[in-house]
Write a structure and sequence with these properties.
single chain, mainly beta, OB fold (Dihydrolipoamide Acetyltransferase, E2P), globular
Length: 89
């Protein structure tokens, strides 16, 4: 049985858009929802900095990140797993 006070870990999924920093990647998270009044689909794009300890991500990879304690001023997520590697052209 689950503990009622246990905090649910928040995971996000996105595409790596920058890997120029050491042990940090920037992902772009796309959120789509229906407008409550006009019933049109709205797309919101946000950028999140993710801690990548082994520098294994490259631009174009699709990853899953989990929320964690603050690691720096802007980093609050850690890399959980790489879902899909970028295709080389």
């Amino acid at each position: 049985m689950e503990d009622k006070n246990a905090k649910k870990s928040l995971t996000i999924q996105g595409v790596v858009v920058s890997d120029s920093m050491d042990k940090t990647v920037v992902i772009e998270v796309i959120t789509r929802k229906v407008h409550p009044r006009f019933k049109k689909i709205m797309t919101k794009t946000s950028r999140v900095k993710v801690h990548d300890e082994k520098n294994e991500c490259q631009v174009g990879d699709r990853i899953v990140a989990v929320e964690t304690r603050p690691l720096s001023k802007q980093k609050h997520h850690k890399l959980l797993k790489v879902l899909e590697k970028a295709k080389l052209v």
